[in-house]
Amino acid sequence: MKKHAIIPVFIPHKGCPNDCVFCNQRKITARTDDVSAEDARAVIDTWLTTLRPSPAPSSEDAASDAGAGTVEVAFYGGSFTGLSIEEQSAFLAVAYEYKQKGLIDKIHLSTRPDYIDRPILDNLRAYSVDTIELGVQSFDDEVLRKSGRGHDSACVYRAVSLIKEYGFEFGIQLMIGLPGDSAESCIMSARRTAELRPSLARLYPTIVLDETKLYDMYACGQYVPLSRKEAVYRTKEMYKILDDAGITIMRVGLKSTDIIGEGGAVNGGTYHPAFRQLVEGEIAKERIEPLLEDIAKEKASADSRCRVTVSSCSRWFSAMIGHHACNRRYFADKYPSLDIRYRTDTTLPEGRFTAEIS
Ligand code: SF4
């Protein structure tokens, strides 16, 4: 069993009267029907069959099974706490029941910062919710305004302060390339996020979906999507800030299953099925290059090629090599005097590299 499994229950646009320019929630979540609490139960049961193939006959067995990994039910999609308290409670009661039986370990939900207040948090606490993920998108008020978010950055601080007071874990989602955005405002947003110390974050480059205001803005030239290069650059800078602050970066870019093909989506390169690998590959390149540069300078006068071993932990191995081996090719071309080999070193922390003459 996986160490940490998330059972996603998508609640498309339910509870959200807002109209963020980039959002077509029904398309993003690939669901068009309203989801009921009983649908949520069916989703959880289906996932549990895969995650825990032998359903535990008693709560004692279930609890011991839970020790094999963490299973989290996550209400994603719309703005969960924008639902009426009764609707929230109906969904939460289902998740709570599974948590009490030891079949799941945590309850997680995503919502907007302006849908956080004491009565809402009291209710979430009553149902033993663990993690609240806030769709913040940007800390730049002008970007929030141009994106039609309907709240400002002060609202984010109020929400986070209340969430911390109640003791929930929390996460922050940020977007890259929204209207009015710049590299500076993206970096500022990552810094503000790091200061708030969430336990997790997600980074989503903006995608222009059909049937959104952003699409209209794009069609009339009011909005220009970022190039892939710029999207990777901004995301990389934000990633480093969050990672250095010890924040778990749960997602970088949308998954292919998040985007529904009919009609397609305009993205100017901001969508890539392996966007995270592009970003982590750039980080790896940036960190490995000075190591190779030093060795190449040191060995400049040597007659023969010098063999160098570059190492990373196993999770970062593919980032070290680069998407479609682009880093390997880049280093081979740039340092012809070096015979570079790549290997894993399990003693290395994530995102750290060594280069040694071998
Ligand atoms: S708040 Fe969330 S669900 Fe609602 S319109 Fe904005 S992005 Fe979409």
CATH homologous superfamily identity of the largest domain: Aldolase class I
Helix content: 40-55%
Strand portion: 15-25%
The main sheet orders its strands as: 1-2-3-4-5-6-8
Distance between the termini: 38 Å
What pattern of helices and strands is seen along the backbone? Answer: EHHHEHEHEHHEHEEHHEEHEHHEE
In terms of quaternary structure, what is this? single chain
Per CATH, the architecture of the largest domain is: Alpha-Beta Barrel
Q: Compute the number of strand runs.
A: 12
By CATH, the topology of the largest domain is TIM Barrel
Query: Low-confidence runs (pLDDT<50, min 5 residues)?
Result: 55-68
Describe this protein's structure.
The protein is 41% helix and 20% strand. Mean pLDDT is 89; it is low at 55-68. Strand 3 (106-111), helix 5 (118-126) and strand 4 (131-137) form a beta-alpha-beta unit. The strands form three sheets. Strands 1-2-3-4-5-6-8 form a seven-stranded parallel beta sheet. Strands 11-10-12 form a three-stranded mixed beta sheet. Strands 7-9 form a two-stranded antiparallel ribbon. The protein folds into two domains: 4-273, Alpha-Beta Barrel (TIM Barrel); 284-357. Helix 10 (228-244) packs across helix 11 (275-298). It has helices spanning 25-28, 37-51, 59-66, 85-100, 118-126, 141-146, 153-166, 183-196, 213-219, 228-244, 275-298, 317-321, 326-334, and strands spanning 4-11, 70-77, 106-111, 131-137, 169-176, 200-205, 208-209, 248-252, 265-266, 306-312, 338-344, 354-357. The chain contains 13 helices and twelve strands. With 358 residues, it is α/β, with parallel strands linked by helices. Bound molecules: iron/sulfur cluster. Iron/sulfur cluster is lined by residues 13, 16, 18-20, 23, 25, 78-79, 112, 135.
